[in-house]
Specification:
- The protein is α+β, with helices and mostly antiparallel strands and 484 residues long.
- It folds into four domains: 29-234, von Willebrand factor, type A domain (Rossmann fold, 3-Layer(aba) Sandwich); 244-328, no CATH class; 333-367; 374-482, Tumour Suppressor Smad4, CATH 2.60.200.20.
- Helices cover 32% and strands 30% of the residues.
- It is built from ten helices and 23 strands.
- It has helices spanning 2-29, 44-48, 53-64, 93-104, 114-127, 156-169, 206-234, 337-367, 396-399, 407-410; strands spanning 34-40, 71-77, 81-89, 135-141, 174-179, 199-203, 244-251, 260-269, 275-277, 283-288, 291-297, 303-310, 319-328, 374-381, 392-395, 405-406, 426-430, 436-440, 445-448, 451-453, 457-460, 465-471, 475-482.
- The strands form five sheets. The chain has a six-stranded mixed β-sheet with strand order 3-2-1-4-5-6, sandwiched between helices. A six-stranded antiparallel β-sheet has the order 15-14-23-22-19-20. Strands 10-11-8-13 form a four-stranded antiparallel β-sheet, with no helix packed on it.
- β2 and β3 (81-89) form a beta hairpin.
- α3 (53-64) packs antiparallel against α4 and α5 (114-127) runs parallel beside α6.
- The longest helix is centred in the last third of the chain and has 31 residues, at 337-367.
- The termini are far apart.
Length: 484
């Protein structure tokens, strides 16, 4: 009896120890890593990877991550950001299928902007609280990284500035996996930035591509293992400080005495600010004591935006004061004969312009008596820091003053319009039956009544709206017709 009890006790101890070990092993094996995958969907991919082998590499990486605790995210880019997804756990095959369905519905087109892609991936990882020492970024592309001038607001120097900023500030390794058909292996552009990353790999067939994915994945897992082992030894985890970039608005106030401002100087007092920068060359920033001096030469805008970086995600509230203002005095004309002549000339010009406008308005009304109402524009989402933008509206008579009018002309007073170059190829036309045509020659994605509209010319009647997506989740507007 004692022997049976002893044997049963030993088995119980073994079961408890084994269960504890398995629980620890399972917990340890599900720690996982964070991997952000940046996927090239520019037009050159259609030529270099016609069969979509690059996406096979992504699927392989997802399958390797099932049930491991890995978090996988992605950024899909051309010369804009087409799609992005935060890092998420890959628990089973349904998660793999969900991600791949998203990616397989994206078609390659337009140019290439790797600077924008890298910056977006960096910011997304920071928002996701990526695991320091256990995170990596993988480029999946055809290796053609030269910037294409589809985006009129950026050039190659802007792209490379963003690239080097990321390379110099991130704490995680970057790997580039490039796939091209065998006939194109020697035709890729040469970019020096690729020599600064941790690894660059080439493949010209699917088998080699899968081998490279396995090799890079093993490097990342090894890196994470070494980090955890070292951390356990020193009993401390070093977490990098993340900088957050915030906008700051500087308002140009008209001088009380009139005249034109030729130079204005702001003093900005900060605490815990790491950097202050501006995108405009005519804005000069210098650090003075515990603050900064910002000088703007010949300001033409009402509000200027500069940016500052802090280690806090919450914006600061600095003290801003105007310390210097140089004004060109207005021209004073003596009230004499010359004044009378000039005043009379100006009055005649104004009367003539008003008369011409009245005649033209009557002519339009006589020719097109049914044209009434207006076209309204709603900005559905506004980039952080720009504040609310009021609803824009244009009368039917104004729209009918030209055969067709580019949307860029209607939005010219909106500062956000510079980020929508496609509006140059979107036209608005007033029709005789008091409807409005939106002619979409820019290929912008449009929705009407909740359904995507494929036609280039879209007819809008009273109280109908057209939703236009210029940059998903960033710049989206709605045009709505209010016609009588």
């Amino acid at each position: 009896m004692k022997k049976k009890l002893l044997t049963g006790g030993l088995w119980l101890i073994i079961v408890i120890i084994l269960g504890s070990y398995l629980a620890y092993a399972q917990e340890d094996s599900t720690e996982g890593v964070d991997i952000m995958v940046v996927i090239d969907k520019s037009d050159s991919v259609n030529w270099n990877d016609p069969h979509g082998e690059i996406l096979n590499a992504m699927e392989r990486l997802l399958n390797l991550s099932i049930g491991t605790g890995n978090r996988i995210g992605f950024v899909v880019y051309n010369d804009t950001i087409i799609a992005q997804e935060h890092v998420r756990l890959i628990n089973d095959e349904s998660d793999v299928e969900t991600v791949m369905n998203q990616l397989q519905n994206i078609h390659a087109s337009r140019g290439t902007d790797i600077g924008l892609a890298l910056q977006t991936a960096r910011r997304q990882l920071e928002l996701d609280d990526y695991r320091f020492g256990e995170t990596a970024l993988i480029f999946l592309s055809d290796g053609w990284y030269e910037f294409s001038l589809f985006n009129l607001n950026r050039d190659q120097s802007d792209v490379m500035e963003d690239v080097h900023y990321v390379l110099n500030h991130v704490s995680f390794p970057i790997f580039a996996i490039e796939y091209r058909m065998p006939s194109h292996q020697n035709s890729a552009s040469d970019n020096a930035w690729k020599d600064e990353i941790e690894g660059r790999f080439f493949a010209s067939n699917n088998q080699r591509l899968m081998e490279i994915v396995d090799e890079v994945y093993e490097l990342i897992i090894t890196m994470a293992y070494e980090h955890r082992r070292t951390t356990d030894e020193v009993q401390a985890v070093v977490i990098p400080q993340v900088r957050y970039r915030h906008p700051l608005m500087l308002e140009i106030i008209e001088p009380d005495e009139g005249g034109t401002i030729t130079r204005i100087e702001f003093t900005i007092t900060y605490f815990d600010v790491e950097a202050l920068e501006a995108n405009d060359a005519y804005i000069n920033i210098s650090e003075v004591g515990s603050g900064f001096t910002v000088t703007i030469e010949n300001p033409e805008e009402v509000v200027y935006t500069i940016y500052y970086e802090t280690y806090s995600s919450d914006p600061l509230h600095p003290e801003i004061s105007i310390t210097r203002l140089e004004v060109r005095e207005p021209l004073v004309i003596p009230f004499d004969l010359i004044g009378f002549v000039l005043t009379g000339t100006v009055a005649m010009i104004i009367i003539g312009m008003l008369g011409f406008k009245l005649i033209k308005s009557r002519k339009i009304k006589k020719t097109l008596p049914k044209l009434t109402g207006q076209l309204e524009c709603y900005f559905m989402e506004v980039p952080t820091g720009f504040g609310d933008i009021p609803i824009q509206s244009w009368s039917a008579s104004y729209l009918s003053s030209q055969n067709k009018m580019p949307l860029s002309k209607l939005l010219r007073k909106i500062s956000l319009a510079s980020k929508m170059p496609e509006t140059e190829k979107i036209y608005v036309k007033m029709n005789l039956n008091n409807t409005i045509s939106i002619i979409n020659k820019a290929g912008i994605i449009c929705f009407k009544d909740g359904c995507e509209v494929k036609e280039k010319e879209i007819i809008m009647r009273h109280n109908e709206g057209l939703y236009m997506v210029f940059l998903k989740k960033t710049i989206e507007i709605e045009l709505r017709a209010r016609l009588k």
